[in-house]
TrEMBL record:
Keywords: Membrane, Transmembrane, Transmembrane helix. It comes from Schistosoma bovis (Blood fluke). The keyword Transmembrane helix applies. It comes from the Eukaryota. The chain crosses the membrane at residues 6-29, 41-67, 73-97. This is Uncharacterized protein.
Amino acid sequence: MNAVDTVIMDIVAIITVVLATITIITVVITDITVVITDITVVITVVITVVITTITITVVITTVIIIITDIMMTVVITTTIIIITDITMTVVITIIIIHHHHHHHHGHDHDRRECYY
């Protein structure tokens, strides 16, 4: 009986070791999987953040460029209007001065009445 008991004990011991080894391997594999998953998640998050940041930067830059463009257009338009206005004023002033020089007598009204 003793020899049989020893063999049984050995078999049980071997089975236990094998099971333990399998368990350890499983745990290690699980750990590796978890780590890989974590890394994947981190990479995904990083990529998402980077893409989002780039997108936001691009959008902000575009908006700034558009605003600058609009401002420039407005400034240029305003400048042109002001220049046109000044030019018109100068031209009108010159015309009035010339008119006054040519016709010293009376105002436009008097002259208009004379024509009729």
